[in-house]
Structures are given as structure tokens and as C-alpha cells.
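Subject: sequence -> C-alpha cells, single chain

Hey, anyone have a minute? Need the predicted structure for the following. Not urgent.
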Amino acid sequence: MTWIVIRASGFIAYILLALSAMWGLAISSNLLGRSTSKKTLTFMHESMAVGSLLATALHMLFLYLDEFVEFGPREIFVPGASVWEPLSVSFGVVAFYGLVLITASFYVRKAIGQKAWRFIHFGSFGVFLGAALHGIMAGTDSGTPAGIGIYVGSIVIILALAAVRSITAGQPASPAPRPSRPRPAVREPESDSNETAQPGPASARA
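Reply:
Had a minute. Here:
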């Protein structure tokens, strides 16, 4: 039972992390348009990162509870301490710390400033790479058709979105269209029906 939870939570954590990275790249590349507010898009991006972190915590908890491979606190939290697959586990541990930092940055964004927040978020590429290497090297399902599709598909999509982001980085965002204002109605000058008649030749002779 624990091994099933370990495998499922690992996949869920990776998928949510990949979706969060894709969403962030799509937002920064202005691929999602302006039909939805940026606050809502950022909230979805943040929610995926939080979900990935929670799934990773569940993954680590059940690794600790599992009796097949002995994982203590040191093996779980210290890179290189694991006897079982030390390199791949190290990738996972480092990716976990990076995910904690990036997720926490959402809540201190105003305090650290936009520039620092963006700098921290550039680390998401390293987090994704570490998580992908950990899953491919240590995951027992990485060789299955579903596993290959998830890893290869996510890597290709993120590379494509990163290429689009690099192309659009120097281009200014298109301004939002301004709502058209109704033109004021032009009133036609009314003819004066009470205009005084000018005396004609007949009245002049009277």
C-alpha cells in the first residue's frame, strides 16, 4: 500500500510541477491573452505549485513509512545520504528545497520586490530539471508507456514554451484595447418658425 502511495504521489507532484512551470511560461509570454485577469492566472500558477509541494511532502512521508527501502530523516533531507540510488535521490532532495523556496516566494513577493521574485522564479527551471531526472532515474514506472509519455511530453512542451518566452522577452506587451466611447450626438439647428417677416415691395407701397 505504501509503495502505491509513493508512486502515485510522486507522479502527481511531478505533473503539478510541470503544469505550474508551463502556466508560468504562458503567463510571462502573454500567450493566455487578456480575457482573464493576471491576478487569477497567477493564483492558478501558485495553486499548482502548492499542490506539487503537498504531493511531494506526502511522497516523502510514505518513503519514511515504507519498510522495503529504509529512508530515515537523513536520507530524505540530506542530498547524497541515501544508499539506494544516491544520485537520483539527491536530485529529488535538491528539487524539493527549490520547490519550497519558489512556493514561499509567492507569499513574500511584496516584501522582496518584483526583481528578486523573478530571480527566484528563474530557479524553477532547475527545480523542474531535478524533478524530471529524479523521476526518470528512480521511478519504477518511468519506463512504462504512460511514464515515457508524461516525462517526454512535459519536457518538450516546457522547452517549446521557454523558446517562445525567450523570443517574446524583448517585445513590449500589447496594450489592452480601450473601450470605445460613444460620440456625442450633434444637434441640428432648429429653424425659427417665429422669425419676423421682412416687408416686401407691396407693404412698402402701402
